[in-house]
Specification:
The protein has 16 helices and 16 strands. It is of the alpha/beta class and 424 residues long.
Length: 424
């Protein structure tokens, strides 16, 4: 049984890395060097507390890593404080809510069908903290926040916190305009940057902190191609309440082994990030164009489909998001079903969400995006997924090397494995 389980993992590795086209918008792959150093002794260690003030001994090297990571993110993001201890974007959100919103307080956020994340809404983290949510109005024609209607809601309800950023996120939200309204009523403005952090660092998406947000939260494994983890960054003069919310509020173990790989990824993004981020957005637009050329229905055609890594596709006339996502997986094309603004139920969505960040990392460009669009169209129009799968597997053979990152040598592998006594 043990060998069978090991073989499952190895088979998964081959399937996802060599045989599928992964368009899940919330995933990515690390560089070879970041993956190598993800294997380290810190995976089994604790470091409760903050740099220089821990509740455990044996953390002197943890302090060096965490301090360096915080300082580098602060420089890149133009932040006065950064906390890298949250283990996910959702934990970063919850800690920020706990710090900035009183019990039974009010948050203004986008519902899921307008792109808001589950942690922004009453079905998720807000419910857990007994925080009430009021809906930020949506402008369907411009596929963005309706600034005028949002202003009226904010002025009337005076929420303690306003949340922008999203899970389905095609165009930058009007952070500057909403920040002015937030200031007028004394609200904090949070931007959930999880999906676009790599685009922000790469300089192709507005930095919300420079646009007027008080705080950003993020994960570190979407367009930012690092290990799974979270962070909080902001311009508040006093971040102590947020720090206390992270620990002891929502974390004890910070999954310390990710720190060095996150630092490596940030270093790579400083070198290759502009080229990578630009390629991601170009690929997303090319994918939208390709889908439209195939007679499918990507959203926001008038607006150029997207300014991020994402494309939203309406597949209601083909049986809906759940059916289409399952069919595509049979063809080794991995996407997720996604609610669209007109859906009555997020459990029966009419759309699928596509992301180009991982395929960009494997070296695909706009020409390949049109080929991917043709694969998708073949499946959606009813061709046998098994036939498409054979073509997808063949197609992937040309895209196996991860780009925009540092390489590794055999000597590096030997050094890491010897340090952990993994060679026998």
């Amino acid at each position: 049984m043990e060998r069978e389980l090991l073989e499952v993992v190895l088979r998964h590795n081959v399937w996802r890395r060599r045989e599928t086209i992964n368009l899940i918008a919330s995933e990515n792959v690390m560089s070879p060097l970041a993956e190598l150093f993800y294997l380290n002794d810190l995976a089994g260690r604790y470091a409760e507390g903050v740099v220089g003030n821990r509740y455990y001994q044996g953390t002197k090297y943890v302090d060096i890593l965490e301090d360096a990571l915080v300082r580098e993110f602060a420089k890149v993001l133009d932040a006065k404080f950064v906390d890298v201890r949250p283990i996910s974007g959702t934990v970063a959100n919850l800690a920020t809510y706990l710090a900035l919103v009183p019990e039974s307080g009010v948050v203004a956020s986008l519902p899921i069908k307008y792109g808001g994340h589950i942690s922004h809404n009453n079905v998720g983290g807000l419910r857990a903290l007994r925080i009430k949510a009021v809906e930020i109005p949506w402008d369907l024609e411009n596929f963005n926040v309706d600034v005028d209607k949002a202003r009226r809601v904010i002025e009337e309800r005076k929420p303690h916190l306003i949340i922008l950023g999203g899970s389905l996120y095609l165009f930058p939200h009007p952070v500057r305009e909403i920040s002015e309204v937030a200031k007028s009523v004394g609200s904090y403005l949070l931007h959930d940057t999880a999906h676009v952090l790599g685009l922000v660092v790469g300089g192709v998406f507005p930095n919300p902190l420079r646009e007027g947000a008080h705080v950003i939260t993020s994960s570190t494994h979407k367009t930012f191609p690092g290990p799974q983890g979270g962070l909080i960054a902001g311009v508040l003069e006093d971040s102590s309440e947020i720090q206390r919310a992270v620990f002891p509020g929502f974390t004890s173990n910070y999954h310390l082994h990710r720190y060095v790989s996150t630092y490596i990824t940030l270093s790579e993004m400083k070198l290759f990030g502009a080229e990578y981020a630009s390629a991601v957005v170009k690929n997303a637009r090319a994918l939208g164009e390709g889908l439209a050329e195939e007679g499918l229905s990507p959203l926001a055609e008038r607006l150029g489909y997207t300014e991020t890594h994402q494309v939203a596709l309406d597949v209601s006339k083909f049986g809906g998001g759940d059916r289409v996502a399952r069919m595509l997986e049979e063809a080794n094309i991995v996407v997720n079903k996604n609610a669209l603004p007109w859906d009555k139920s997020v459990l029966k969505p009419s759309g699928v969400r596509l992301g180009t960040q991982e395929v960009t990392r494997f070296g695909m460009g706009p020409g390949e995006m049109r080929e991917v669009a043709r694969f998708i169209a073949r499946v959606v129009r009813g061709e046998d997924p098994a036939a498409v799968r054979r073509d997808v597997v063949e197609f992937r053979k040309s895209f196996l090397e991860i780009k925009y990152g540092f390489k590794i040598t055999r000597e590096m592998v030997d050094e890491v494995f010897n340090s952990l006594s993994l060679y026998t």
